[in-house]
Design brief:
Blueprint: H1 5-13, E1 16-21, E2 33-39, H2 45-53, E3 71-75, E4 81-85, H3 96-112, E5 116-124, H4 131-142, E6 147-152, H5 159-172, E7 179-184, H6 193-209
Parallel strand pairs: 2-4, 2-5, 5-6, 6-7
Antiparallel strand pairs: 1-3, 3-4
Bound molecules: guanosine-5'-triphosphate and magnesium ion.
């Protein structure tokens, strides 16, 4: 894979569903580089994957929080690279035991997946940097895991207000040396999609050559 934007676009467009896993031991054999999309439940993770891969039907989206309950793997035409849709965190309406189980699987994947080469943190631009987001960011900082931030649902704010959140988040995360970009994103308007593809491409390229 090269960083040529046409190649990358083609590669993301070629994403296919590979499998769902309920726990780490059911995950497909390790790839070379997996980039996982994480974030609060209902933040827009699955929609972001669909926008980036230009495939509305790839990852299931829903108005109801808690739609993605499994770890979903998508392969690209380059078999060494995968995108991973993680279950959202912070969904209050599931039972405590289910919540704990979810947390454990998420944790297990993040802590133990050898091929995890990058994290895309999806945050609703109207509710950025929740406690869990910060926990995840602290972890990706100490783990030196390349992290891309998408401030999604940017269409919900006026341009000026969206920019303000962008600068606020940027300032707060100044010290986080593994951040590879902060992007104003909208799955509805397709804002930030090509920028995200470029940033993802460079994370993937770095991961492949590491
Ligand atoms: N206006 C707007 N709505 C969005 C955007 N992205 C997602 N949504 C909506 O937000 C809701 C949740 O989107 P999903 O992509 O399913 O969110 P998720 O983070 O995958 O949710 P879980 O799988 O439940 O954790 C859906 O109703 C989407 O249509 C966006 O950029 N703009
Ligand atoms: Mg989802």
């Amino acid at each position: 894979m090269t960083t040529d934007s046409n190649d990358l676009a083609l590669s993301f467009n070629s994403a296919r569903f590979l499998q769902s896993s309920s726990k780490l031991s059911n995950c497909p054999p390790e790839a070379v580089v997996e980039v996982a999309f994480a974030g609060r439940s209902n933040a827009g993770k699955s929609s972001a994957i669909n926008s980036i891969t230009n495939n509305k039907k790839l990852a299931r989206t829903s108005k109801t929080p808690g739609r993605t309950q499994l770890i979903n793997f998508f392969s690209l035409s380059d078999p060494r690279v995968r995108l991973v849709d993680l279950p959202g965190y912070g969904y209050a309406k599931v039972s405590l035991s289910l919540k704990e189980e979810w947390g454990r699987h998420l944790d297990d994947y993040l802590q133990h997946r050898e091929s995890l080469g990058g994290l895309v943190l999806i945050m609703d631009i109207r509710k950025p940097l929740t406690d869990f987001d910060r926990m995840l960011l602290d972890w990706s900082h100490t783990s030196v895991l390349p992290t891309l931030i998408l401030l999604t649902k940017a269409d919900k704010l006026k341009r000026g207000a969206a920019k303000n959140v962008y600068f606020q988040v940027k300032k707060e995360l100044e010290a986080h040396s593994a951040i590879k970009g902060i992007i104003l994103f909208s799955s509805l308007k397709k804002t930030g999609v090509s920028e995200s593809r470029l940033a993802l491409g460079s994370i993937v390229t770095d991961g492949l050559s590491a």
